[in-house]
């Protein structure tokens, strides 16, 4: 049969002409398919328009060209249609432009002179199938979502809920469907929030926010909620869809993280980060209102001794009590912050005059002097306070904080338990200190230091048995700089370890020179800073190798320490002193009687010499209390198997009284000022 030749059907079909007319002109997609050859015998105009081929191109086209299913599957489906086991099928048909459409095919058999043909009407169901798939996916999402979902009608009655809704709220579908959604309301929520929510839903059809809600068991929880309204074709409300999740734990976690980031864990006060934020807010407010702000920087006097003697646990309790006391001295609108350690700061806003600030500071100093009744015995502390003002002293937070810090150190230098206002001269002193720090680093690199020696005389014979090595800085511009000016800076900047190492090595070299000159039993005392015992500041092996290389023994070196070192409970101090002892070095305890003296410490660390501080020597007179104290120290020291060195001896009467009391050694201006190594050679 030719491609354009009409098909003849059996008489059972009816008029060929009528069928041909209906087939050609019908708006439905129609195909005649020969199942034997698996080809399209004929197609109508609607088919040509749908597939994108001409009618003559469709005729005699293999069915596999438009049907994307496998030949075996197509053959099986056509066989079922021929046997009239099924009369509709779902296929994917490919159009001429490559596009694939979902089609529903209804087939029936027709007898013709060519044999049995399939008359197929094709329906494009792509959009319907897509809609069904979308609906199926939406149902899956609805049923399996971790977000709680509910649908309520326009009256607020629940129509349906998903499993997550039941899991979060405790309401099973049968318990909630048909009931008012307001059953979830919580009395923890502000009623105005509900009013605002309903106003938004009525006005815009939607709302989003956070809402406190009640579970079925009465527990309150915070949910993140969104509400959307579904409208019908006529614009009327069909339903409202709510979606929410329980964010209670997340909010609690966020709040905890925020608090940890902004508040001190020990005292509960704002920490350094929150302090800076509060300070900036106070400055902005003061600028708007043309007002003043006072910034106080406070440090607890004597707190380190509390930590050293009573432990950090007791120190923490003292800090907590101090924080409470500070808050009692200022207004609720003021900010008390802990900046770290025993440093606190107070921001006082809306300052009208200086006297108001002074009253607050006097209250702080007074309350901090009161005993802290925390442990078995009362603890006594005091405070040093630095004060600066906005805008007089500065307009930026960093500047004000620096000013208050400098004023606080000025208060400490004045004797502690005091307050000091910031003055511009403090800025000059700070700049000078900064330059001194830089110069100190250069001095170490360029070896600008030297040692002076003060003789230590045996009182019984008057002979020089020892010498104390005292470091001096020969500054290229300022001349000889006092140790009192640079030793504290070296300790604060961490340069003390390097400086202390240099002092030991140079003192050992001078001791070796005097050893070779015949002074075999001569000892040189080297001062060791408490900070050198921390973080490996002393390299014992290197020091001992240095002594061995010089050909002298540890017995020629005496290590001078202060009582604060003995009070350090760390293992580093004990191990370090034992290493000195094992190397044959002796240990002298400097400034005895001025700190927290303890006989237990003297016995524990096996001290060789006790050095009586000059404060007890300078006022020595027959029958004086100072003489009685010196005699008591000497007797006690000898009973413990140690020897005594008196410092600051300047008069013959002082020397004679000490000798009569049994003191072993003395040093001071009476015998000699500290001199350079060359001049000390002459003394020897």
| Tally of distinct domains | 4
**Cα end-to-end separation:** 140 Å
Contiguous helical run count? 25
Structural class by helix and strand composition = alpha+beta
Largest sheet: 8 strands, mixed, barrel
* Helix content class: 40-55%
- By CATH reckoning, the class of the largest domain would read Alpha Beta
CATH topology of the largest domain: TIM Barrel
Low confidence ranges: 8-14
Q: Order of strands across the biggest sheet?
A: 16-17-19-20-21-22-23-24
Going by CATH, the architecture of the largest domain would be: Alpha-Beta Barrel
Shape estimate? elongated
Secondary structure tally: strands: 25
Q: Mean pLDDT across all residues, rounded? A: 88
Organism: Noviherbaspirillum galbum
Catalytic activity: 3',3'-c-di-GMP + H2O = 5'-phosphoguanylyl(3'->5')guanosine + H(+)
GO biological process, one term: cellular response to nitric oxide
Domain GGDEF: 291-424
Overview of the molecule:
By secondary structure, the chain is an alpha+beta fold. A hairpin with a 2-residue loop joins strand 12 (335-340) and strand 13. The protein folds into four domains: 16-129, PAS domain (Beta-Lactamase), CATH 3.30.450; 145-251, Beta-Lactamase (2-Layer Sandwich), CATH 3.30.450; 263-422, 2-Layer Sandwich (Alpha-Beta Plaits); 436-683, TIM Barrel (Alpha-Beta Barrel). The chain is elongated and about 150 Å long. The protein is built from 25 helices and 25 strands.
């Amino acid at each position: 049969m030719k491609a354009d030749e009409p098909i003849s059907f059996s008489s059972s079909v009816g008029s060929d002409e009528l069928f041909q007319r209906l087939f050609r002109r019908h708006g439905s997609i129609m195909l005649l398919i020969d199942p034997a050859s698996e080809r399209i015998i004929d197609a109508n105009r609607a088919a040509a328009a749908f597939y994108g081929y001409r009618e003559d191109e469709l005729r005699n086209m293999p069915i596999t060209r438009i049907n994307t299913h496998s030949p075996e599957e197509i053959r099986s489906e056509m066989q079922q249609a021929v046997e009239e086991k099924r009369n509709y099928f779902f296929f994917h048909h490919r159009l001429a432009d490559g596009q694939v459409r979902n089609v529903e095919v209804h087939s029936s058999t027709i007898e013709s002179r060519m044999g049995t043909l399939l008359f197929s009407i094709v329906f494009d169901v792509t959009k319907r199938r897509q809609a069904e798939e979308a609906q199926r996916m939406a149902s899956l999402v609805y049923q399996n979502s971790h977000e709680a979902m509910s649908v309520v009608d326009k009256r607020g009655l629940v129509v349906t809920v998903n499993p997550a809704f039941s899991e979060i709220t405790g309401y099973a579908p049968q318990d909630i469907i048909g009931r008012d959604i307001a059953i979830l309301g919580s009395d923890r929520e502000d009623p105005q929030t509900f009013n605002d929510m309903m106003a938004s839903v009525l006005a815009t059809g939607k709302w989003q926010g956070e809402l406190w809600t009640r579970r079925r068991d009465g527990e309150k929880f915070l949910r993140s909620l969104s509400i959307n309204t579904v409208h019908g074709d006529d614009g009327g409300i069909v339903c409202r869809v709510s979606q929410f999740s329980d964010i209670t734990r997340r909010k609690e976690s966020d709040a905890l993280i925020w608090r940890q980031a902004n508040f001190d864990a020990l005292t509960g006060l704002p920490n350094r980060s929150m302090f800076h934020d509060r300070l900036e807010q106070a400055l902005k407010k003061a600028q708007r209102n043309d007002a003043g702000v006072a910034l106080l920087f406070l440090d607890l006097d004597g707190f380190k001794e509390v930590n050293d003697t009573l432990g950090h646990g007791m120190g923490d309790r003292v800090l907590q009590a101090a924080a409470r006391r500070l808050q009692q001295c200022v207004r609720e609108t003021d900010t008390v912050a802990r900046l770290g350690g025993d440093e606190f700061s107070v921001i006082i806003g809306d300052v009208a005059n200086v006297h108001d600030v002074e009253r607050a500071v006097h209250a702080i100093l007074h309350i901090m002097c009161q005993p802290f009744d925390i442990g078995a015995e009362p603890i006594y502390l005091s405070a040093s306070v630095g004060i600066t003002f906005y805008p007089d002293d500065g307009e930026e937070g960093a500047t004000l904080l620096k000013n208050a810090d400098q004023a606080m150190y000025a208060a400490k230098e004045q004797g502690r338990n005091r307050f000091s206002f910031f003055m511009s001269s403090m800025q000059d002193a700070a700049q000078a200190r900064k330059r001194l720090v830089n110069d100190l680093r250069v001095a170490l690199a360029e070896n600008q230091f030297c040692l002076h020696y003060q003789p230590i005389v045996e009182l019984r014979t008057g002979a020089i048995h020892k010498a104390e090595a005292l470091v001096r800085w020969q500054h290229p511009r300022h001349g000889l700089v006092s140790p009192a000016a640079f030793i504290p800076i070296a300790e604060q900047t961490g340069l003390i370890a390097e400086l202390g190492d240099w002092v030991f090595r140079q003192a050992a070299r001078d001791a070796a020179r005097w050893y070779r000159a015949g002074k075999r039993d001569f000892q040189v005392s080297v001062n060791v800073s408490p900070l050198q015992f921390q973080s490996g500041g002393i390299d014992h092996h290197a020091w001992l190798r240095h002594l061995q290389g010089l050909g002298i023994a540890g017995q020629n070196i005496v290590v001078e320490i202060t009582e604060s070192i003995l009070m350090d409970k760390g293992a580093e101090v004990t191990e370090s002193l034992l290493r000195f002892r094992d190397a044959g070095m002796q240990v002298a305890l400097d400034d005895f009687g001025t700190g927290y003296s303890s006989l237990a410490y003297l016995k524990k660390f096996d001290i060789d010499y006790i050095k009586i501080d000059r404060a007890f020597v300078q006022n020595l007179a027959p029958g004086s209390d100072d003489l009685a104290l010196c005699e008591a120290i000497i007797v006690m020291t000898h009973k413990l198997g140690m020897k005594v060195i008196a410092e600051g001896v300047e008069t013959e009467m002082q020397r004679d009284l000490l000798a009569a009391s049994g003191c072993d050694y003395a040093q001071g201006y009476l015998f000699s000022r500290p001199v350079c190594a060359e001049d000390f050679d002459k003394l020897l």
